[in-house]
């Protein structure tokens, strides 16, 4: 922390007290009234700035993007409505959009490869793909090599075992599953790397919007597994990136 | 149904009307005031009579056994307290007791082999054994060949795959698991026979007394699986027997 | 398993090691990228191939059907939207559709009668029919004789007792009920064959989307009952078929 | 209401204003500091005074009984611990105690027969008896003719049908059941009188302390059924008495 | 029961055995395939026949009405969609409809006054009116004098106390409330007649679709209260009628 | 209370008994049939009259406003639909509307500043603004100075710490947060004034419509915090006003 | 904040930089390793220091008291076991203990009357007293005049109305209730001051450990009510004190 | 995988087919009947063997330890009862025991430092220490440098901020909290390394055995956080170790 420097400048009269008080308050966030943007996180860890678009009006989203874009940050939007993207595209023609996972990407800088190894994203079924792709594109945009292995649920265990080579090549695994949500347990038993489990709200009946899969994953008897919120592909992709850049 | 015989006897004056009315009421149950015993089910399907001991006083249990014993039925007691068994043992010296699963057996007749094939009981862990054994002894006492494969949970999938021969030899499978409860899904994907899933209350944290395993099993994406109540080893053993005696 | 043959071919130089490794991986599933189709299950047990259509795009469904159809399999689709069926119908004019239960059927081969006895489907009310019909058509398409007894809920017990002959003629019973879900308990007390209970989400108030009926069924004090997920008519029909083909 | 009398007395100067204000406040309850006893309810409807003993100290219970006894009321205690009863017995030698249902009775006056017809209490199983007996003794002490029909659960429907005569003779029915709790639905379909359903916490697994039976009863598709709280035998007995004294 | 007559006819050869068997099966229900109508209940207790319209197709509803109408029964439809009513109106021009409570009435006979006293329906708020009116019209159509007292929730206790005269004039009270659902407790403390509590799904936040009000009512510490399902105005009206016709 | 005056008037023959009885019943509410309006509360505490518009028809709302307006009260409507407002605006051209928070205001009198200090409303995120603004406008219309500090959630703690001056200047704080709902705990630890916590239904996955935030706030280990219902901005604003006018 | 003073001292060389850095870190908490004690809160707001004893070992509790006592603070312990108190009493002979509410008090200084008005604590029943007393003694020890009104639950509304004078004299009300938890709603409708609702875990059946009362209170339709956690008498007493000392 | 070697040995006649078949089955687990021990995991990743002691009999635990000890593995036991430890200690005098966290350690080999950085364990309160220590000793025994920062909950945010240096020095953070469980969110916002959140069952009222903290953590709006099961300190310690040994 440069608090010492600040104090030294005060001592040496390079900085008057009011300015010092000001700077002490000056954390690197910018107040738009309806939002406080945190620019320095991106600088600090080399990551893009992120907007969680759900529940925000188009005007707010455009306002936030505008501020971010002035810093020439890379920008990642999650849960971005197609209609919102269309408006963004008009102003930022380079904006890209992944329709299934509702990921928005505005790339103002080269993506630096921060990951030390490979992240592998596996899913139990075809219907888990939107959540899995949210994790996939997030991790990719945060500078990782990512590989996908989809529809390898435990009710046909050979489909998973057939993909053991890819799974064994991972430094971090993201296991996405709805319904009974047992995939992370089986994967966790096959590998010796961290497994991030993502329950999805896919299923019906006593699935309770993903609660069933969530409980399964929390109760996994395999070691090395942790869980993020239901359908939270972004969270899994972000955490996997954090782990993968450790050296 | 012998209703026709009864009517014919009435018509032919072999039976007067009041006796007929009486007999029409006379379903094969015996009223002890605090309990209605159903003797004929045992005769009808060759099964022992069953007492669910939990929540019944020793006096009631002894009273029920007394009535059953007069018919020389085989008697199966579930959730029988050790202290209760000790009292029973004094009166019925042939009574046997399985301490782990709390199963009481009084065998007054030879057990007839009613099963057409083999029932296999598998568990996810060591702690599921009490419930699994309840299923095991129930199915055995109901006239089945039963085999046990314990501690083959999905977090070490090779342990289960190593036992594929036994699993493939089953006509019906009982899969018992607590914690994440994923075992039936994997087993169900390996075989083409009915799988009866038994969630157990084994686990901690967000296990909620077996609810987690129950939901997992209900949401299984493998076909051919159905579920009984949490810790209901008896129910699974009984249903497996019913299926196994089909011809 | 033909692992021995494979090993013998390797030993006898009929198969080089790389091909052997390849074959060892070659489980009978086909990877479409977004889906792994398991063709051999159909061959192994004489059943049609099944697509769970809910949550899959029309494109994915058509792609999967295309692959299945190349094998001349019978194809059963569940939870198939009417609009999807209309597209399928254009390409496969023989495709049939049951509107109430949303069942899609493409019959490329004769249906072999695999069932040893009769499956009877009973419902508590008129509103349970969509789920019951899903079970009915599934069991029928899997090669069973199936009979329906609808609207015989326990609040008018004579309606059920009037149908005892049909119920007693079953080898397996599927009991479908919403609201209080007590039908399987009463049916289970009347027969000595397996009863598969299907809770439906029919009802209102403290029904909680079928949870009430589900809990009732799990807590049934009748023996020989097991439960599938809420509204899971397909699962019940499939399991009933599995039990019914046991010999 | 004698408010008019009071006002007239004020007008005629028979009552000064401060006394009138006082009387207006004077509702017929007696404040012991830790409890407010409502003596007049007993007088108003001919019922005993009731103490819910659970969660009250012996001292408080004795204090309340003392006040009630001074009015020579009949006293009904529910959920009374055996140890508490022993202390009460020393002071009030006429006090009676039903051990199974934990009912305390101190009879200072003859019980007047207030009921116009008969109340019938039915249970699904033997383990529901403690709750059923709480209803039975309550209704009896409140001046009703009550009959018991126990262990006639729906999984053996003939046991219940055998007792139709008694059931049909009731003016009000209390149906007590745990586990799946389906008894009130079947009973409700057989009779044309009000059925008070009492869920019990009897059962295990996904019974959740009686929640399963409670939901079943609330979702009953039979008409004429209402539900009291889990294990609330007193409430059912009290309500049945209220209904039975209507003329 | 006329079983004795039947047996006597058999004995006297007035009835051959096959016809007798037939008649024994012949409970007074009529099987439409998709529905079993119970005509005799209406005759037995002088009530109209009832159709629960929700979840039934217009065709089914019209089919059921047609059968009922042939008997010249009075017909009460609950949860009847406006569009369905419009179709019914075309065929049965006398059909009436209460839009707020979605009650359908076809009156083919005079309504006989079966109630011995008055039923009073109270609500906590204005938004509870649709459910309360369902109870009101049901009780009225079943031959009761019914009075309404609306918007007298406990947060303004004087509003309720102002209506004590009406409340005290009731033989049975139906108390309808959403949000915190405390109305029945307060009402139950003011009167000595049965109170039927109806929780409504009115409210927001931690109301959970009426669960909050349901739990409040089940846990009421006032005696003489029982509860029907959330929003089940019909059930309350029907039960109140049953109680009110007791003599 | 002027009960004494009333009694004195009776005594002095200024008031005849029937009028006195009438007045005793005459609590200051007005019965519209479908609603009981409580005019005097506004007079008693200087607050506007409030209509909770959700679940009320436009006709009812207009009827209630009409009665209120006759007293020249200020009127606050919550959860007012835009379409309803448009109708109101035609009749009451001075009516104002806050679109985000759905607040309706009709100001017939000057707003008196009743608050002794400042109320500060803080939110965790941008999406909590609709609920926060409901609190803001409510408190303002009830005569308070209110300040807003938005998007200062705990995951970027410096954003909150930067606003300590404003937070420390409050006499009462309203802390609005969805997702994990931790904001009130942190705020509560920073200040020595009452904190009213408002959970919002903002979030996804295991958020369960605000339940997650609600539980967090109830379990807060900071002292001086209490909680209102999920999304209940009005309740928080009203309570804050009540506290703020204490002197 | 004296940050400016600190900076001025640095500038004027009255404080060297390392000391300044030290002081900047020096928040007024004391780290015992297993606990961080916050001495200055007591000084800041004139309150005693508080130990939540549940879940802490006697050794830890004694260690914490020792540190607090060195400052001559007043000390309030909540949920203090009797055995723990006995150990404390040996060392601090002035320690006092309220057995019912498990409150520990060590008074080292005079209690300053900080409250501007009176706090009134009301309960629904006798069994709510332990929680209510926790609130009572907390508020008292924090310098308030507090009055208790117990056993005035809504099922006997006149008991509450009889106490209106006391209730109307309060500046803040704490309303404690279990079972249906309706007391705060009724109280909230009678007064114009803040009501703090405390649900208790008193009750049985579908009470779910106080959840029923909690939901009731959150859904209250009376304004001016907020809720603390189940059984959290301390929290209510603390918050009431905070509100009561506002001027 | 050495499958290729195996095949080459078969080809080269170094291995006969039956032995090859045998070896193919020979996964590195050892079947004790009641347990399947997986020795090679320890060898594969340099970790100790782990026994989850809860729900296992002393005999089973001793049997498992015996097998493990023969391999001279390091052995870590979790949730080990004190009585069990006493028996173990007699046989293995080097066994160590951490009483608070119930951790058993038998060290047969030097612990190799596998961690690349430091793991920091933080807790919200003193009562979270048993769970936190389970994580601490697990991570330490798995070869990590671990530091503890206890009692720094968010309600006194300065206590946490005072420890920023230690927190910033971590490569992985384990954040343990009960009650409102907000600690991980705040920590997650302060650092750029993975945070493993552990909810504890510490708290009361609407805490629901840790569910409240669990939901808070799953809903955290800070990025880089994942969650393990309630009270699962071992799981957190294991996962942290896995992450910390990545290079």
Explain what the structure shows.
The structure is a homooctamer of 247-residue chains. The model of chain A has no long low-confidence stretch (mean pLDDT 87). In chain A, the strands form three sheets. A five-stranded parallel β-sheet of chain A has the order 8-7-9-10-11, sandwiched between helices. The first copy, chain A, has 247 residues and is of the alpha/beta class. The first copy, chain A, contains eleven helices and eleven strands. The radius of gyration of chain A is 21 Å and the shape is globular. At the E-F interface, helix 7 of E face loops of F. Chains A, B, C, D, E, F, G, H: It comes from Romboutsia weinsteinii. Chains A, B, C, D, E, F, G, H: GO terms for molecular function: hydrolase activity. Chains A, B, C, D, E, F, G, H: This is Nickel pincer cofactor biosynthesis protein LarB. Chains A, B, C, D, E, F, G, H: Pfam families: AIRC.
